[in-house]
Fold:
Amino acid sequence: MERRVERNTSIESSGIELQSGMPICQTDLPLDWYQKEFKPYAEEYLALPNRQPETVLPWMDSYIEPALKHFGDRLMLLAHYYMGGEIVKLVERYGGSIADSYLLAKQAVMHPDTKLFVESAVHFMAEAIAILKNEDQQVYITNPKAGCTMEMMAKEEHVVPAFEFLQERYGDDLVVVAYMNTSGRLKALAGATGGAVCTSSNAPKILRWVQKQGKKIVFVPDLHLGINTARNVGIPNEQLFQWKGGLEGANYRPEGAALEALDASAMILWGSYCGVHTIFKASQVEYWRERGYGVHVHPESPAEAVMAADGSGSTAYLWKAVMDAPPGSKLAIGTEGHFVSNAREQAQRRGVEVVHLADIPEPGFASFGCGCATMSRNDPPHLVAMLDLLHKGQAPDINQVLVGDAVDESSGYRERLDAASREAIRRDARKALERMNEITEAP
Structure:
């Protein structure tokens, strides 16, 4: 069956439009940032006279529409809410879907007849789809070097040495809860210990499930989400133990009073964080509240901002807060900058004012709202090149995502496991993801 490409630029799910006369605001990447197979497309894009939709879209259409016609419903385009520039709008324009990490992970399960998933997001999101997919489905990422700063501080070589120390000390009393922002290798660690994956929206439900078992929780990788979720489920601060993140965490071994605190803890928090969300402060919340704004933040933010805000939740929660706000409302949103820009654009049409929580134009507030720079590594040439090369049967192997792949976000070097190791990780990681789904969807 052929995919029918809607030519109406108004997007049903978000209402966002690519308007004539407004530039496509994706920052152009240097030519040497593109893999060799993608450079011809990047050269064409960079040579375009401007970034107006009337210039960029015909160029994209010339490659993408034949590819979509060729694959029809066998192919699905995907992107995350945080995608930079106009990729969210472009993916939706070509019939794709935008979702948070939880729904992205379920796409292969939800669409068994789709055989190719092309994702404009970060690597762990594409790998989550690969973990749950069927054998006859394939997953591609438009830029394999698109990573997550939080996940970069919680690589397998960082976490596993620390976990081995903890497992030796606590044995089967230890359960790993892996945030979605982890590699398949760490999700497998959760599955092997009887734990589960979680997202920012279902983390409280997952932790309550572990609490009922009376197990000690290792929560990896986000420190702030762990702190905020622990408070949500009633774990006091004195029962939290903060491990170090990155390579320092791999080598860390608590001694003396620190070891006593570790033994007494109910939850061990890995020390990673999201650079986009750590900028939020209670003072920013109070600034906007004094001016009549309701404030909602993402739970990857520091506890002081979450506790001061009117509400906190996942990207889906934040989008709903904006979409459900009555005309005349004023909202300050604390999350990734591209998301807030898209929410602001949509809200304006409904008479709702949206600002980024950190965008305070006064002395004394040095911070400012920023976007996820690694997601912004997916741009129009990456999308065009990926689809055209798939259409030609020349898709680069580096862009296909298999379970267990470990990609260096700087060099692009990929470590791919042998089939047996890959299957072992898939089995345990799939357990952790399916367990999350079961817990989340239970009445």
User: Anything to note?
Assistant: The radius of gyration is 22 Å. The first strand starts at residue 75 and ends at 80. Residues 31-147+376-412 form a domain with the Rossmann fold fold (CATH 3.40.50.10800). DSSP finds 19 helices and 15 strands in the chain.
